[in-house]
Amino acid sequence: MKFPPHILLILATLLWGGNFVIGRAVTGEIPPFTLAFLRWCVAFVIFLPIVYKKLKIDWPKIKANRKIVVILSLTGIAAFNTLVYIGVYSTTSINASLMNSLTPIFIYILSFIVLKIRVTKHQMIGTIISIVGVLFILSGGKLSNIVSFTFNKGDLIILVAVLCWSIYSLLVKQYSNQLPGFSTFLVTIAVGAMILLPFTIYELLTLENPIIWSPKTIGAIFYVGIFASIIAFLSWNTGVVKIGANRASIFLNFIPVFATIFATIFLGEQLQIAQVIGGLAVISGVILTNRSKI
């Protein structure tokens, strides 16, 4: 059965929205590096049979671009999700997902700085609006916090995570003609897991009770490993192929919507007025930056 591309894109963002909530839900029960490592181990085991035959054909291309593949593994696999899981120890999953909406803005800024790509008027205005929105979220709507630079540590960690994901996304876009998508994703999962392994071992050896095994933690590992990784990835990429990356990027704004719904229902998080105002500003800015491309 073939699903319409819009349904696939919404499914992907729904599953990614759940990732922020799951990360927050198991804080204190499984440490962040371990959760990220186990996530990608599960994803690798599930994805390997799907891609193995194609990987043998694509290997020469991947080997020729191995430096880029390592950077993709470091930023998109090892760093991004681990930093998200660390950040949600100190901030809400709602805040984390709202700031994740800043990804397209970071990509535009990086494209301008690194690739010297011209920024349009819409992109400049949209970037400013989104940055103001993020500052509003970070400060809780209080000007005094902005002036004194009093921000939540978890929020700042999430911003670093979003920067890592933006670098990853920019590189994926730049090397899309040189690196085969599915095979590269499998290899980056493997390399990313190897990068995470020593940190995971350190956590397991130094923490007194590193993992509290329960149906909740086991379910969280399989959710982030299968649904938030493999199913979301396949759904997203299929949808992007059918309607194009520019039109698909708008669907990323559903991530904070779904994360907010899940967080209020399952975690009891309260939606604050600063989050609403700041989130609307971020999303409005992203839509404006994409306006000239749609």
Class inferred from helices and paired strands: mainly alpha
General form: globular
Number of helical segments with 4 or more residues = 13
The biggest beta sheet, please?
Answer: none
Number of DSSP E strands: 0
Based on CA atoms alone, the radius of gyration comes out at 19 Å
Q: Please, what is the average pLDDT?
A: 86
Q: Any low-confidence stretches, pLDDT <50, length ≥5?
A: none
- Report, as a whole number of angstroms, the end-to-end distance: 29 Å
Helix content: over 70%
Q: List the helices and strands in order.
A: HHHHHHHHHHHHH
Strand residue percentage: under 5%
What's this model, at a glance?
This protein is an all-alpha fold.
Plain-language structure description:
By secondary structure, this protein is an all-alpha fold. It has helices at 5-25, 32-64, 66-87, 93-100, 103-114, 121-139, 143-147, 153-174, 181-206, 215-243, 245-249, 254-267, 273-290. The chain is built from 13 helices and no strands. Helix content is 80%, strand content 0%.
Task: Walk me through the topology.
Blueprint: H1 5-25, H2 32-64, H3 66-87, H4 93-100, H5 103-114, H6 121-139, H7 143-147, H8 153-174, H9 181-206, H10 215-243, H11 245-249, H12 254-267, H13 273-290
Helix pairs in contact: 1-4, 1-10, 1-12, 2-3, 2-9, 2-10, 3-8, 3-9, 4-8, 4-12, 4-13, 5-8, 6-13
